[in-house]
């Protein structure tokens, strides 16, 4: 049974963290995730953060890296946004699941500005990646707090502009509402299970502030957003 606590983050693992997930099961799961993000507006929070962090951007090409990119849906939405803005952007999606990246490439054929790399963010190779902006959408809750501060410090060293984080609030209300939501809108067992685990692994605002104190760069903002999300922006300057 999946449990949620007001005092601590769950350590229960998500099924989707099995990098061997592939085939029809993966395809149905990705369709569920796309439906959830569309109905609850999750990607819009990241795009809004990207808009904020690029407010004072310099002229020239911008490189944006999405870590834990999945099938690249967020990158495609970001590419549509930056095209409308007339910005010259390159996008790199990073994920540790080679099967999901194959799907990402198939779904991104009309976006030549997007490319993908298979990589684990905890491996030393991640330090070879540099960008103007790093995006972490529904990604950090997969890690322990001490790993999160390590990952973000690395990203901030490698970023020219900063990092945009979009992740879940750990809330019993959100947990209950997701149960109801999933009975209507979610078809796969994995998405129903992992959605609840994700909420249980999410954050209280004070927990994010404690993690932020361990980040070397202090120019940060943390804001609550609907539906039960936090938008955390870390500025390099």
UniProtKB/TrEMBL annotation:
Example GO molecular function: transferase activity
Domain of life where this protein originates: Bacteria
Domain Methyltransferase: residue ranges: 64-157
Key word Transferase present: yes
Keywords: Transferase
Gene3D superfamilies in alphabetical order: Vaccinia Virus protein VP39
Pfam families on file: Methyltransf_25
Keyword Ribonucleoprotein attributed: no
Record-given protein name: Methyltransferase domain-containing protein
């Amino acid at each position: 049974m999946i449990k949620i606590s007001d005092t601590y983050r769950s350590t229960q693992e998500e099924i989707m963290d099995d990098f061997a997930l592939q085939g029809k099961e993966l395809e149905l799961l990705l369709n569920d995730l796309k439906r959830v993000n569309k109905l609850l507006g999750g990607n819009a929070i990241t795009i809004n953060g990207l808009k904020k962090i690029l407010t004072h951007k310099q002229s020239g090409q911008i490189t944006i890296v999405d870590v834990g990119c999945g099938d690249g849906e967020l990158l495609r939405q970001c590419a549509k946004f930056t095209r409308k803005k007339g910005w010259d952007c390159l996008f790199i999606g990073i994920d540790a699941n080679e099967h999901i990246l194959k799907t990402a490439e198939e779904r991104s054929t009309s976006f030549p500005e997007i490319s993908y790399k298979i990589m684990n963010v905890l491996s030393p190779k991640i330090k070879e990646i540099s960008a103007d902006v790093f995006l972490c959408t529904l990604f950090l809750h997969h890690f322990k707090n001490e790993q999160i501060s390590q990952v973000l410090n690395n990203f901030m060293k490698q970023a020219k502009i900063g990092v945009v984080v979009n992740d879940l609030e750990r809330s019993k209300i959100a947990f209950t509402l997701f149960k109801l939501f999933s009975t209507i809108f979610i078809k796969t067992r994995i998405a129903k299970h992992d959605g609840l685990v994700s909420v249980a692994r999410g954050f209280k605002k004070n927990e994010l502030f404690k993690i932020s104190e361990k980040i070397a760069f202090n120019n940060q903002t943390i804001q609550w957003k609907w539906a039960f999300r936090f938008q955390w922006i870390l500025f390099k300057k």
